[in-house]
Write a structure and sequence with these properties.
about 300 residues, nine-stranded mixed β-sheet, about 30% helix, about 20% strand
Length: about 300
């Protein structure tokens, strides 16, 4: 059965700043910020959280069903879906608007500044779970229009579909009650350490209180690996060191794809977390969010090299 991937399908414009942001931002002037970063490289790639997670799942042999709204400029991206054998029935084209556009600048410390034009994503809630005929094996609700995230999570959890919540860039859109609505009863809440701190601040609850509202909380810590908190038990997932750091864009989406693929394939969280860590590091080694070249066999071989045993 397919894995539902709810999230944005966007064009990513990836730019490089050959210095450090910190060297050009005065902390005492943050309330009066006026700074420009001259970029040395600009490339446009297929992206968006839904598109990236779906693409990585497909590389690993899964059957992702991406649920999203797109604009009238989607044609080349649609051809990309077709070439990779990805389903299109979850995509709804909105007339008269462009697809979402992400603009990211990365400095030499791999810090990133993002801007995002929502375009067709503003109507993402019109691409409904209820309109899909497919039986669903698994689902992830990633960053999207706010109403879409809330609607999709509610319907999926109501149907008993194991549902992961990954708010990422969409977290600032949510108020306290909306954040808790997403977390309550989900199979896993997946965030990076900054987003976890923001979740604690936004909800006003303790870590233990939030751990008790869903089955699992997964927190990524960048180069320090990740931690999986499952009903009182914490599993520390070691980091995988990238052979070279080319571009961090999309590594979080790759991590989530590896995690979901592992769990949907029946592996325990310790194994699925390592699969996630590996795929995230592998993504860092290539430019752009959907240029990773990997298949099930090469993935298994590298997993064995990294962790000393297979899955």
């Amino acid at each position: 059965m397919p894995i539902l991937v709810s999230g944005s399908v966007a064009f990513d414009h990836i730019m490089t700043f050959p210095q450090k942001f910190a060297d050009h931002i005065l902390p005492e002037k943050l309330d009066d910020l006026n700074v420009a970063f001259n970029i040395t490289d600009w490339q446009t790639h297929f992206g968006g959280t839904g598109g990236n997670i779906g693409f990585c799942l497909r590389l690993l042999g899964a059957d992702p069903l991406v649920l999203a709204t797109v604009g009238t400029d989607f044609g080349p991206y649609g051809d990309w879906f077709d070439r990779h054998g990805m389903r299109r029935e979850g995509l709804l084209e909105i007339a008269g608007v462009r697809s979402p556009q992400g603009f990211v600048t990365t400095d030499t410390d791999n810090n990133q500044i993002w801007n995002f034009y929502e375009g067709a994503m503003a109507r993402a809630h019109e691409a409904r779970v209820e309109d899909l005929d497919a039986e669903l094996d698994f689902a992830i609700v990633s960053a999207n229009g706010k109403q879409a995230m809330l609607d999709h999570a509610r319907v999926l959890k109501g149907r008993g579909v194991p549902t992961y919540i990954d708010p990422s860039h969409g977290l600032p859109l949510l108020d306290r009650e909306e954040t808790l609505q997403l977390i309550d009863g989900c199979s896993a809440y997946v965030v990076n350490d900054y987003e976890w701190s923001l979740t604690l601040d936004k909800t006003g609850l303790s870590e233990s209180a939030l751990f008790g509202r869903c089955d699992v909380v997964v927190i990524t810590h960048g180069r320090n690996g990740s931690s999986i908190h499952e009903r009182g038990n914490t599993i520390e997932i070691p980091p995988v060191t990238a052979s070279r750091v080319v571009d961090p864009t999309g590594c979080g989406d790759a991590y989530r794809a590896g995690l979901i693929h592992g769990r949907a394939s029946g592996y325990p969280f310790e194994v699925a977390g390592r699969m996630a860590s590996l795929l995230g590091a592998w993504q860092v080694e290539c430019k752009g969010t959907q240029n990773l070249v990997v298949d099930s066999e090469s993935f298994r071989e590298r997993y064995e090299r990294e962790f000393g045993s297979g899955f």
